[in-house]
């Protein structure tokens, strides 16, 4: 039986959604490609990032009910596929007060590899960046941060854009590695968005490292609503770079 061709659209990633200065934030890009997998909204999707996605550049995004691909000039930037969510022991929410206390220990204020990052860059202003500053929480090994999604993150359906949820789940897992000077980029992200927060809802992000294999570092992140309900969670793989990317 022949397979239905993948639907194709041209997309661009605006500079607002950068991670490094010249390329997109990995979590945002992963969410963009995941959305092209035409599955149920709460389906788990695995995204593998193969090259830094350029900003303000026409990109080709193709997807069907099982998989999706993002490419530029014939070069594959990312692949996505529908999967089962990896089993993981999820902590309960530490609560907003504890998350705010943990954010006070955010090491990125003193040293940050990408201070203009859409998600965790301290140079970004409120309403422009997400300003998610994950710091060491109690008990170890968890890191936590508060996050209040604002109206600029709403999609055309009036709900928080799922790409923003993927972005929010990204950077806390990097800082949870406990190596703030580590040159690394997101290599793979598997996420499941079960519910969306409301605009203005105080949320809590908790992240933790799980293992390391050479240059591959594994971590996880969970997003909770104001009442402690689980909204989304993700498993991430960070690839340690031989040289930092600009």
Blueprint of the fold:
Blueprint (H helix, E strand, L loop, with lengths): L6 E5 L14 H10 L9 E5 L9 E5 L3 E6 L2 E8 L13 H8 L31 E2 L6 E5 L14 H14 L8 E10 L9 E11 L2 E9 L5 E11 L6
Antiparallel strand pairs: 1-3, 2-5, 2-8, 3-4, 4-5, 6-7, 7-9, 8-11, 9-10, 10-11
Helix pairs in contact: 1-3
CATH class of the largest domain, named: Alpha Beta
Which regions have little confidence, pLDDT < 50, spanning 5+ residues?
A: none
Provide the CATH topology of the largest domain. Thiol Ester Dehydrase, Chain A
CATH architectural group of the largest domain: Roll
Radius of gyration: 17 Å
Specify the CATH homologous superfamily of the largest domain. Answer: Hotdog Thioesterase
Helix content: 10-25%
Largest sheet: 11 strands, antiparallel
* Spatial strand arrangement across the major sheet: 1-3-4-5-2-8-11-10-9-7-6
Oligomer: single chain
How many domains is the backbone divided into? 2
Shape by Cα distribution: globular
Number of helical runs?
3
Structural class: alpha+beta
Q: State mean pLDDT (0 to 100 scale).
A: 94
Strand share of the residues?
25-35%
| N-to-C order of helices and strands | EHEEEEHEEHEEEE
Number of strands: 11
How far apart are the first and last residues' alpha carbons, in Å? Answer: 46 Å
